[in-house]
Amino acid sequence: EEPVKIKMLNYHSERLAIAFGLIFVPSGLPIRVGKNLRVCVDCHTATKHISSVTGREIVVRDAVRFHRFKDGTCSCGDFW
């Protein structure tokens, strides 16, 4: 049961959208993702790391608020 849950985290829509953005959005432009559900803790943490490693700004709009990830931090202050 637990390994299946861990594997399913790889297919969350925002992670796939961010990967697509990293490939196709030119450097220097922010990656913008819209989502109709709340961002899960794992995806929030992963997006912080991705923004830190890639040096890209990533903006995710979820059901509650905008999250602006830049240099490994989020505008929500990890409170959402």
From TrEMBL:
It holds the Pfam family DYW_deaminase. One of its GO terms (molecular function) is zinc ion binding. Residues 4-80 form the DYW domain. This is Putative pentatricopeptide repeat-containing protein. InterPro entries: DYW_dom (IPR032867). It comes from the Eukaryota. It comes from Noccaea caerulescens. Belongs to the PPR family. PCMP-H subfamily.
